[in-house]
Amino acid sequence: MARPRAFDEKTVLEAAAAQFRVHGYADTSTEQLCEAAGLRRSSLYNAFTSKDELFVQALEHYADTMCGHQAAILTDTSLTGAERIKKLIGAIVDEERVARSEGHAAGCMGVHALMNPDLRARDERIARILDRDLRKRLDLLEDAIRAGRIDGSVPEGTDAAEGALLVNTLIAGLRVTAQSGVTPEALHRIALDGIRSLLA
Amino acid sequence: MARPRAFDEKTVLEAAAAQFRVHGYADTSTEQLCEAAGLRRSSLYNAFTSKDELFVQALEHYADTMCGHQAAILTDTSLTGAERIKKLIGAIVDEERVARSEGHAAGCMGVHALMNPDLRARDERIARILDRDLRKRLDLLEDAIRAGRIDGSVPEGTDAAEGALLVNTLIAGLRVTAQSGVTPEALHRIALDGIRSLLA
DNA sequence: CAAATTTTGTATTCCAAAGTACAGAAAGAG
DNA sequence: CTCTTTCTGTACTTTGGAATACAAAATTTG
């Protein structure tokens, strides 16, 4: 019995995340967010009370979506453990490739939020989301490494937890290195060199 | 024939960098900068015209200092090429260790500035400093790798440019991963695993 | 010791960006 | 068709922090 929302909430969260992941929290103005979402100020504030709140929701949605993508790759049992990890790296590099074709780097909400202790302190939910997301992704990586140890694509002695942390660290590094204009091809090669210790 | 400055400029730049490397540009207030430097607003503005200018100078000093430290390690001819790179990683991890003992991560002006396209756009000098710094550090790393190829500590086939980029990428990743509370010991182990491809 | 000049402290101004108010338009329910 | 409710657009208010003004204090040199 009332006028329904003319925009899709998820779509707005994705548009917001696209801004935040490139510019970070502080350097994304509510103006930019409106522009990116194709919404007016009041619609945005009506749906999401504040920039802070919008950030939290965008981060949550972003983390879930990302994690979903990575889970799809890392649990694909048609591939060996090592192949899954290589495919994940390929996917990250591809993200950078399309961002590059748009004239910027892909950025990463996770890196931005992690690197900013003040942001995490401002809203405890942010730290919680980041922790949960990290934990989930490490678990997925550990499972893939264990699978690799069994199928023979990963050396037997490999510590799953540390291998997972290495892959995650390398990915964060890629996000940063991508900002300095390195080609996706070079990015791909160094990432594969970085996980050499995980390949049988 | 005039009252001399009561503070040391370098010391102020270092205090400023210590704030910027943790909080980033936007989330460091001029208030914090005054506090950290032990200076009053007017002294700060008198010496460095603006927050922007202070940031640029702090970044320049920070990059030079960091590069100097790294150069000392990477050109130490009493070590093999591989040993130099391992020692560099140890030094980065130690930085994180002391930061951790102070209750935070070390952060990195380079990572913050790189991840923020708006900041680089605001003042062309920032992009210039970052480019020069990256170039210098990659050159040092390449030299160490080449030295390693000669002394036999690094595999013959290794591409120096890509090896250098890998080490640099890993270090950036360490800066990020350190923010999530991983112990310095774990950080050290995964970093060494990450450069496995560079070790003979 | 006094002049010259710069530093320091407090208070103020200024600005950009976050957030709010409210009138008018749109859409479903009866 | 009309009533109700929610959405949309414009203009306004608020706020946090960067930057400035200026008077008083401090210090070196001649």
TrEMBL record, chains A, B:
Keywords: DNA-binding, Transcription, Transcription regulation. The keyword Ligase does not apply. It holds the Pfam family TetR_N. Residues 6-66 form the HTH tetR-type domain. Signal peptide: none annotated. The keyword Membrane does not apply. Gene3D superfamilies: Homeodomain-like, Tetracycline Repressor, domain 2. It comes from the Bacteria. PROSITE patterns: HTH_TETR_2. Residues 29-48 bind DNA. This is TetR/AcrR family transcriptional regulator.
